[in-house]
Specification:
Layout (H helix, E strand, L loop, with lengths): L16 E2 L2 E2 L7 H14 L3 H14 L3
Antiparallel strand pairs: 1-2
């Protein structure tokens, strides 16, 4: 099992802050990553745009 770095309150995370956006790292299953690559090739929508659109739909439109 992979070991992931835990949040450290003393660590400087300001390099991850970019304007009104936040940089995150996610691990996704290989099948989903492949589907995202196919989606990008078919639509031109990059992975960041896809993830943001899906999160907005799921989290903001379902209130």
């Amino acid at each position: 099992m992979e070991k992931f770095e835990q949040y450290d309150a003393n660590k400087n995370y300001t390099s991850y802050l970019t304007g009104d956006r936040r940089l995150i790292s996610v691990n996704i299953p290989v099948e989903l990553h492949y589907s995202m690559l196919v989606h990008r090739a078919e639509t031109g929508e990059n992975m960041t745009q896809l993830i943001c659109r899906l999160l907005e739909t799921e989290l903001l439109n379902n209130r």
